[in-house]
């Protein structure tokens, strides 16, 4: 399924964004108030220049023993993050995000402007019905195979019992 089809089927609110020149404290306040794990960093044309994540804050401020006072988003953000295109396949990004171990992917249009952000939760919500369907198909296929094996085994057992009874009657 294409990302744009998924977004059309389940529209999301526009992603919250910040600019590189905004203060980290303002961005973190928004993240905390809205319970966001990340914010997309965009330029004046709404083109992605980076991503600010909880991990960026922890690693580049807290763990480094620095103060966020006076810091700009540009000082700690992750620059040039991977971005998905609306015409990309969701399955491709599920695999990529899993392999590269990141939880969010900005989605851009043909004009490279930010459209949405997909999270691992979004991808799991997409994959869940597919996985259930595949599990059901596999269970049905296996149950048929087991049924036929039991049918053949049961037939052989009935034949063996009949032969023993017949042998006792004739002898």
Based on secondary structure, the structural category is alpha/beta
Can you summarize the main beta sheet? 4 strands, mixed
Mean pLDDT: 88
- Strand arrangement in the largest pleated sheet: 1-2-3-4
Shape: elongated
Q: Please tell me how large the radius of gyration is.
A: 28 Å
The succession of helices and strands, N to C, reads: HEHEEHHEEHEEH
Residues in helices, as a percent range? 40-55%
In the predicted model, the low-confidence regions spanning at least 5 consecutive residues are none
| Gap from first CA to last CA | 70 Å
Strand percentage lies at 15-25%
User: How many helices does DSSP assign?
Assistant: 6
Number of β-strand runs:
7
Please explain how this structure is put together.
This protein is 54% helix and 16% strand. It is α/β, with parallel strands linked by helices. The strands form 2 sheets. It has a 4-stranded mixed sheet with strand order 1-2-3-4. β6 and β7 form a beta hairpin. The longest helix is centred in the last third of the chain and has 51 residues, at 120-170. The relative contact order is 0.13. The model has no long low-confidence stretch (mean pLDDT 88).
Topology summary:
Layout (H helix, E strand, L loop, with lengths): L2 H7 L7 E2 L5 H11 L3 E5 L5 E6 H9 L10 H4 L1 E2 L4 E2 L4 H11 L3 E5 L5 E6 H51 L1
Parallel strand pairs: 1-2, 5-6
Antiparallel strand pairs: 2-3, 3-4, 6-7
What attributes does this structure have?
54% helix; alpha/beta; 3-stranded mixed sheet; 7 strands; 171 residues; 6 helices; 16% strand
Short description:
The chain is an alpha/beta fold.
